[in-house]
Amino acid sequence: MGTKRWHAELAWLGGEVAADVLIEADGERFTAVTPGTPAPPDAVRLPGLTLPGLANAHSHAFHRALRGRAHTGGGSFWTWREQMYRVAERLDPETYYSLARAVYAEMALAGISCVGEFHYLHHGRGGVPYDDPNAMGAALIAAAGDAGIRITLLDACYLAGGIGEPLRGPQLRFGDGSADGWAARATELYDATGHRGLSHARVGAAVHSVRAVPPEGIPAVAAWAADRRAPLHVHLSEQPAENEQCVRAYGRSPARLLAEREALGPRTIAVHATHLAEDDIRLLGATRTGVCMCPTTERDLADGIGPAGDLVRAGAVLSLGSDQHAVIDLFEEARAVELDERLRTRRRGHWTAGELLTAATADGHAALGWPEAGRVEAGAHADLVTVSLDSVRLAGTEPAFAAESVVFAATAADVRDVIVSGRAVVRDGRHLIVDDVPGALRTAMTAITRDG
Ligand SMILES: [Zn+2]
Fold first, then answer.
1. How far apart (Å, rounded) are the C-alpha atoms in residues 113 and 392?
2. Is 272 a catalytic residue?
């Protein structure tokens, strides 16, 4: 790939915003970052504010097909889930590849350099495995690569249709029969990904939730992740009903149950963490478990506002995800954490713009098992996102407040240039690999939502 040089008008380097930053890379990694340097003639100019690559730490790519469709007629999380199952029923490895590639291309246009795909749609209709039992996971990994972004495939164990309930209907496609069955299949995917030498993909583990994995299955998934030092993600307490069912069945909260089954710790990411008791917050903080907030999904599904401030004060590390992709815009997720907390507490100033950017970049990448990414510094993955300051939303931005302006007023549409692992993926707002991203989304969506 060779040496590359970019010159950022302004760059956020983790603390202050610096001007005239020369950024150099060799292959996939940065080699030098030098503020206060005039642009050499061979450097690619990046006008605006340049950030590290954004990490979308929680995604279910196929939920993108529900955008708009799931907004009619009110309903609840549980009726939304029925609609989501209907889309899941239509997908096979080819149609899922096409949809995911388009969705990941949308992510690239929004400045996302790495996605955490929480993947549970493993098998064919009725739960019959494909010839390659990891055909669906492989399709997602290929889709990310072909959209120009990195992926951590979080392979989810999903064994039950609810506490004490078997898998039914579309859920049959999620199941591996047992935690050992899950581990055997996940190991194949893990080993195959390593053997293929795919530098854009890593494989981690997920416990779908305490609804979907019985307590006796949790330690096997946790041990699988621990043995590989891989991330372990889990949906936690998104709905009060999950807490009530868990307490009724097991006499403890979901967080306490996960802790007792060795599933909490610094490599674990609790997704949502919306309805927590004080004891749960202490437990997540004390174990340094990460929390991934998905505010646009949590508000869309009327989940509630999670105690992000209390969790961070207790010791948890924050990351962000667009989850069901009601929108794909990490700036919206980042500011929502602060703005939701303001509504909850009627006070301002819980997070600085820099802290929210850290959640969207370095801490998000670490949550996905890429601790060497998400920073503009020598040695890090050469990911850059440049936000134009010329749009109607950002025109007149003072350089000293560029980070605040972007976090609190930019949208994904303001992203102009995206570099992922040293490769230009978006230039001047155009995806360089997927020619027509809206067209790709339209085609993929039509294939899975038409009647018949
Ligand atoms: Zn989710």
1. 25
2. yes
